[in-house]
Design a protein that fits this description.
The structure is a homotetramer of 349-residue chains.
Chain A: H1 13-23, H2 34-47, E1 52-56, H3 59-70, E2 75-80, H4 84-87, H5 92-96, E3 101-105, H6 114-122, E4 133-140, H7 151-163, E5 168-172, H8 175-182, H9 186-189, E6 197-201, E7 211-215, H10 218-230, H11 239-249, H12 253-274, E8 278-280, E9 288-289, E10 291-294, H13 295-303, E11 309-311, E12 325-331, H14 338-348
Parallel strand pairs in A: 2-3, 2-4, 4-5, 5-6
Antiparallel strand pairs in A: 1-7, 6-7, 8-10, 9-12, 10-12, 11-12
Helix pairs in contact in A: 1-11, 2-11, 3-10, 8-12, 12-14
Chain lengths: 349, 349, 349, 349
């Protein structure tokens, strides 16, 4: 019962096979091979417009270099208070943006409140050099706690950004899970809603190392090769990342995997709701489930072989916790099997 | 006839297979899996002492973060004038070391002259704050132009470092090729000769993405997790790098591949020496061969399907170039076949 | 009626005279003159121990380079939410610390709550590389809103720092005002209470440009010349900063000026308390006064020639604001005259 | 006999007096006072066009922030091998430009050879991401060794910059000395010759701390307030720098002081040429003189009270040095008196 994280899973057999296939032969290095180019074309098809695709080694790199690309002296980027960029990247965004700052914005259940964002930006009057100045906004889709911004919500945030002339970045470490959840197209979830850059994650969804920064603006993209190389993020055998993405997109594998993960999460949620010993913190919208249960119940589940993390209660959760009750996180992935879910249900009681 | 670079080659079948094998199942992320630990143990066995191993995504990352780890304000690192860190890393070492500087040191055929190093360091008197101050030295083994420092030469440079209390880093993007060339042990080529850190490259020698910074000093190693994570270089599914290294070391595969590449380079060199239309710039010691030939000869070889780069003449090469003569680089790899070498010999005439 | 800021004031005649006196003659540059040395000795006498003194050009520089001196990869420094370092330095601390982060800590009336500090630090478990790690704490004395930490309060915060092995920095842009307010010695307010570094400000208290970072730890101090020079903060004619400090300390001028400013602030506060049209947000402890009044009252005062800033309400202020009421800030300085205070009283009514 | 450096001199009485005059009264801080504005207007008059003036604390700050203002990822700035930015700023330019690099360009007697500059720039082909890319050029006027670029020479270098679309910065730590030497206008020596930014130094020429970055391009200038503030270089009582510059420009004081310094240097040079015991390394063009003499002669001069530095022989100096001969540097300033020069002549013999 491996529910610790979707990055505990391995790689989908088709992804692994693609690596084997491309292991033979020769090709130009540093992102210039035919395969690199072909996969960039696939990205453009998927996004229904020309996009510029830059492979990097980690989701943190994609996020931090997105910041680096738009950073200016004294710049501040706005993110949800519990965003990965703020909580889990060890200062990489600040470091790689030459000392930028991340300003936390509140909002219920992992999503920035647009009014709160507007207020936060408003604290930096133009040309008041002492405070610094806004340079960008980032939202996480799906969020850190398995919720998803609707297209309208993205559009509203993008509207705030447009009013302040700020680029909007999407941390899409779980892009596919959000996409399947919304049932929309990549174009709709991004540039048609006002998003300017996407950290497009494949690793959590069945690849072993496939992360890309997808940029829509050609001017921004023209600078990015230097941003990436200066950060030591240009793979020599880049085509092996391309090989993963090729298999990832082939016949909609990526959506299939994400759909499976979401479905498993939904089942886990159903079992939690059906249980007398646990309840949901909130209903999952992607592949993460957050039950509330007694600490001793959690301990017993762990004893029975369930890998589950205790989790911090998100700010603004309108939920009373009983004595000894804790919030837990379960993450489903492409690799989660029905029998794991059933085993969990049984163990939960 | 693919001699453009060893990073044009793909991955050895055993490396690819190891990725497939480990694609199944679950394991903790971020370098904490059993496989990660096991491979670290293998590194320790290979180096005959406890070592600390940090996977990163590129050789540039290993080099730049080695600098980052020892950087201090106003610090200067010394490297051969034609070192990869100076020539080919787009300022990543300077950027990731918070604005450090690389001071070029001359020396014939890709190797720093120890006296020149001593002089260069001597230009930074202790406590003369205006100039800055020395913080480290790096040497490239094998060098950018296929030559190799002898153990004595490494020891001499390490002696200079010790006198000035400077850590010595080895850029081992082609570590295995140098090791096989010297016929010594990893311990002898590194810490027993006074080396403190190694950028240990597997990518050019048959992996698709396997680079590690190997640190001998526990104090330096204790800080490095933060150095790496802050630079966005901590893989979530780190065990897939470990999987490559596991196969790499299994039954001496790494030495076998490097030995093969070196042997192919030696044969290429023999063919050049035997040719009326070309001669060697210098005798190769690892897997790179540098012939001198007429530009039109090079053009004809390319027409016949040879991937060969024209190369800049290294400083201090004591060799007269005729009209229209150019220096070329051929790189052999684990994947170079006897028939490619034979085809080249035939085309060369 | 100039109450806009203490940096709107000029320089005390004795300070100006000292610059004239030292304008003649020659002396070694870059902080090595006899006068520089002599002033360092005076600092040591004032602090009753050997201290290391580094002149810099601004208070922001002193603060940011204090951070730079203790920064480590992934490091987080803790400061009151409304600290100058967070609010008014345009990201200089983050930039000059190589991408560090400032973590806001709450607390009433401009002073960090020690429990809140403990909690904030506790969110960074040792060796959890994802979050980053604590590297230091800074407190502002006097605070941004004219309050002062008692010696006990400083000691309590220093105790938290010691438990977590974190250096404690004091932003002393208004050091003298706090010192006079507490009626203690510089030693008591700093190292005897557990402070490790002080941004020692003279500019707001009658100098025109005299800021120093005072370091107690010789090891930290040994590195600092490079930290400062790398940040372009080493004055060539450094002795003119020394000349200001010489006059500043002569016959207790600094304490006299600060005492005068505090006394003027106290009188302003008395007038506010006595007024029917205004009340104090809180009682001043140094040279800043924060009245609450109707916006139209403020407008009228400005019409009558009073330079007063409207001010943001500090978090945690337990005070109801009526319709159209605003918080204002008045700052007194060495140059504030009794008649200015009287004029204000009259205008206030 | 104080010839150690022009920054060993103090401040001209008129400069000191201006500080006294402005010590009284109140004025807005952070560069917004009437005096700040007025002095910016004077700069515009002097340069015969609208210019944007930013005071900073040191010449190193002006240079490093000029680089910061034009820096881009992977960027390289070109400077003469012996430039202050390379030799004497402890890595500040690299640090404050987020890890930029300074590429040394050779050229005789302290001035870049335009062909060498062209070649150096040419080593960075467009879009070859590995090498990095050119982002700017800087020249020092007067040079580190007292020579001066002619207007034609500046124009030629500016032409190279224009061809490569690179901004040209002038390090004018001794701007006035060069100007007087050329007998041209500030406009001719800068923007009319193709210079885009000037580090305009007043400190070495009779101020105690008056350095400004002068920017001609409004777009570059619009960003610069954030560049400066982020680097902790915004003075609160900025008007005291303005006060120095006001007196500096009043009635041509600056040109008078520089003219005096140059004249004293010329006399020193005459005495050297007339001496049997010394000869000139080259003829001075500004306020620095470089004699060659026996080491024991230098020692004797020092014994007689002459402050003179031994100096490194500049690359490319076509001059044979006899046994025990050394190169020395004498710097004249506004404060150098005829009798000092006479005393030196007598001591030299």
């Amino acid at each position: 019962m491996y529910f610790a994280s979707d990055n505990w899973a391995g790689a989908h057999p088709s992804i692994a096979q693609s690596l084997v296939t491309h292991a033979a032969g020769y090709a130009p290095a540093y992102g210039t091979s035919d395969l690199d180019r072909r996969v960039e074309t696939i990205f453009s098809e998927i996004f229904e417009r020309e996009v510029f695709v830059f492979f990097v080694s980690t989701g943190t790199a994609a996020n931090a270099l997105a910041y680096s690309a738009i950073s200016r002296p004294g710049g501040v980027m706005f993110a949800h208070r519990e965003a990965h960029m703020i909580e889990d990247e060890c200062g990489a965004p600040e470091f790689l943006s030459d000392g930028g700052r991340l300003c936390p914005v509140d909002g219920p259940l992992g999503r920035m409140d647009p009014k709160g964002l507007e207020t936060a930006i408003g604290r930096y009057p133009a040309d008041f050099v002492h405070h610094g100045r806004p340079v960008g906004v980032t939202l996480t889709q799906a969020s850190e706690i398995g919720t998803v911004y609707s297209l309208d919500e993205i559009g509203t945030i993008a509207g705030v950004c447009r009013r302040h002339k700020l680029p909007l970045h999407m941390d899409g470490a779980r892009f596919a899970n959000a996409l399947v959840s919304l049932g929309c197209t990549p174009a709709e979830m991004t540039w048609r809603s006002g998003v300017d850059m996407v950290s497009f994650g494949g690793t959590k969804n069945g690849c072993w190392c496939a992360e890309a920064l997808v940029i829509f603006d050609p001017h921004l993209a023209a600078e990015f090769p230097f941003v990436r190389k200066r950060a030591a993020q240009l793979f020599s055998k880049s085509r092996f990342v391309a090989a993963q993405f090729e298999a990832y997109f082939e016949n909609g594998l990526w959506l299939e995997m994400a759909g499976h993960a979401n479905a498993m999460a939904a089942k886990l949620a159903d079992h939690v709701e059906a249980s007398a010993d646990a309840r949901l913190g909130w209903r999952p919208q992607a592949n993460e489930v957050f039950p509330i249960m007694k600490r001793e119940k959690l301990a017993r589940l762990k004893d029975q072989g369930a890998f589950i993390h205790e989790w911090g209660v998100p700010a603004g959760l309108d939920e009373k916790f009983g004595d000894d009750e804790v919030l837990c996180r379960l993450v489903a992935s492409f690799a989660t099997r029905e029998e794991d879910v059933a085993a969990f249900a049984k163990a939960l009681g």
